[in-house]
Amino acid sequence: MGIDVKDSGRGIPEEDRPYNFERFYRGSNKKYKTGLGLGLPFSLMLAKVQNGSLYLKHSSSESTVVTLTLPYK
Question: What are the backbone dihedrals phi and psi of residue 46, each rounded to the nearest 5 degrees, phi first?
């Protein structure tokens, strides 16, 4: 079981999904993107340090959902 985090953005295009957690990757259409491409990679790193994981659960034109799982002690 994990914690789902959902946004209400435009979603992640299918061709960009394999690179979601790559540092500095801002999408195939970088011209219109803001940010450094570090949010998801940094979040994944924090999850792994705690023996957890972070993965893309769902993305559509209305939203994106990522799931954070952490071990229960």
Answer: -65, -40
Q: In whole angstroms, what is the distance from residue 44 CA to residue 28 CA?
A: 21
What are the CA-CA distances from residue 41 to residues 19, 20, 47 (Å)? 10, 8, 10
Q: Reduce the DSSP state of residue 42 to 3 states and report it.
A: helix
C-alpha–C-alpha distance, residues 50 and 6, integer Å = 21
Range of the domain at 52: 3-69
CA 47 to chain centre: 12
CA distance 65 to 52: 17
Which tens digit of pLDDT belongs to each residue from 12-32?
A: 888 887 888 788 777 766 655
Give yes or no for a contact between 32 and 40, defined as CB atoms under 8 angstroms apart. no
Tally of domains within the chain: 1
